Amino acid sequence: MTFFHAIVISMTIFEAVIFGVVQGLTEFLPVSSSGHLVLLHEFFGTTIHNLSFDVMLHLATLLAVVVYFKKDIIHVVDVFKRMMMRQDVLHRERNLIVALVIGTIPAGLLGALFASTIEGAFRSTISVSIALIMGSILFVVAEKVSKRNKEITGKRGFFVGCFQALALIPGISRSGSTISGGLILGFTRDDAVRFSFLLSIPIILGAGIVEVFLGDNAFVFNVPIIIGACAAFISGLWAIHFLVKFLKGHTLMPFVWYRVVLALLLIFIF
């Protein structure tokens, strides 16, 4: 999940680009956006929430997923339409639709009801650091038990959705938890990655909607905000491409060590 907070309203273009790039990268790489944003907030000394920037980042990262997986999305929509018209669809295609719908429920429901409470309770530097390490342990377990021979089903999709709900805790990483969940449940590496990103679409969209309705700030669109959003889109698109290609032939272990180092930095520096 995206836990972007505390950006000064009068941000410079440089700050907007830095925050946008970091948000785009860490939204999709399994390293957690929260830990990196803590570092950036400390570096820039930012403490004021900017609703406009939050929403624009949500839209930018959402657009990155849609652009990269446009063929998959078009196929999913086509299958869904055929299902609604009671036309024949492949069993695997039907399972994917059901898994996406059911898999959205855990994080969607918990996020709508308790996102602010959970984020507030686990927002401290030490909490984020612990979550970074716990997420790393999850990655290790996923790589150890992965069998990679099970197809995506509604039941397994629901359990991946439960892993996605864990990412409501700052420091866990949405992509990392869902990919790990898929591997633990026996998905192929490619299926785990693609399902993770497709499952992110309604969640990112929902997070943006929640920001709009729960925010108490007026929308302000200026050059830094727009440039920051563009930076988030470009870096997000690159991050998706990199992760999809990287995990075809590599494990999550490099991200495990990166997260542990980041956690130690947060603990001992801040």
Task: Give structural notes.
There is one protein chain. The protein is globular and about 55 Å long. The protein has 270 residues and is mostly helical. It contains eleven helices and no strands. It has one domain (13-269). The two termini are 23 Å apart. It has helices spanning 13-28, 33-44, 51-68, 70-84, 91-121, 125-145, 154-166, 174-184, 189-214, 223-249, 253-269. The model is unreliable at 1-9 (pLDDT under 50). The longest helix is centred in the middle third of the chain and has 31 residues, at 91-121. Keywords: Antibiotic resistance, Cell membrane, Cell shape, Cell wall biogenesis/degradation, Hydrolase, Membrane, Peptidoglycan synthesis, Transmembrane, Transmembrane helix. It is an enzyme of class 3 (hydrolase). GO terms for molecular function: undecaprenyl-diphosphatase activity.
What's a concise summary of this model?
The protein has 270 residues and is mostly helical. It has eleven helices and no strands.
Overall pLDDT level: 87
Structural class: mainly alpha
The separation of the N and C termini measures 23 Å
Radius of gyration: 18 Å
Secondary structure tally: strands = 0
Shape descriptor reads globular
Overall domain count: 1
Helix residue percentage: over 70%
- The oligomeric status of these chains comes to single chain
Largest sheet geometry: none
InterPro entries: UppP (IPR003824)
Catalytic activity: di-trans,octa-cis-undecaprenyl diphosphate + H2O = di-trans,octa-cis-undecaprenyl phosphate + phosphate + H(+)
GO molecular function, one term: undecaprenyl-diphosphatase activity
Function: Catalyzes the dephosphorylation of undecaprenyl diphosphate (UPP). Confers resistance to bacitracin.
